[in-house]
């Protein structure tokens, strides 16, 4: 007879604890808003205006992260797709990105956002030779567009070579 209250308590306790946790209002802090300018659906071109792909950036988990979904033409008529999860780490004061794509790549990146410019950095591991360094910037442009510029270094960061240069314009609805 005394087991019923204990049994009921085991099922009710998780719901009570879940209600006691605050909704993450901390995700409205300015540091987490650094990439808000990138949220939206974008048509992406190279510097000459030739189509390079499309990218959808969505705020997720009550504004605590961003989900990036990239799509561009691939080899032999295929479609290349990539997904990035962007989050701000308040303990370290940095942005983190985990990227995966249809090539099978998984890449962790770390960076910061200042004055409308995000800079991500990472090490590019190679199974056949020395590692390289990668970095890219995402910049808010005065006309509401966005520029994403990637670079690679094979000499430990002494010199950098462009890998891509993309211009984002908001997709028409």
Account of the 3D structure:
The protein is 10% helix and 51% strand. The chain is mostly beta strands and 173 residues long. A 10-stranded antiparallel beta barrel has the order 1-2-3-4-5-6-7-8-9-10. The radius of gyration is 21 Å and the shape is globular.
Which characteristics define this entry?
single chain; 173 residues; mainly beta; ten-stranded antiparallel beta barrel; 51% strand; globular
> How would a crystallographer describe the biggest sheet?
10 strands, antiparallel, barrel
**Count of β-strands:** 10
* Helical fraction: 10-25%
Number of helices: 1
Q: What structural class is derived from the secondary structure elements? A: mainly beta
Order of helices and strands: HEEEEEEEEEE
Which whole number gives the mean pLDDT? 87
Taking all Cα atoms into account, the compactness measure Rg is: 21 Å
Task: Report the uncertain regions.
Answer: none
General shape: globular
Give the SSE map:
Blueprint: H1 3-20, E1 40-45, E2 51-60, E3 65-73, E4 79-89, E5 94-101, E6 106-114, E7 117-124, E8 132-140, E9 146-153, E10 161-170
Antiparallel strand pairs: 1-2, 1-10, 2-3, 3-4, 4-5, 5-6, 6-7, 7-8, 8-9, 9-10
Question: Brief description of this entry?
Answer:
It is built from one helix and ten strands, in the order αββββββββββ. It has 173 residues and is mostly beta strands.
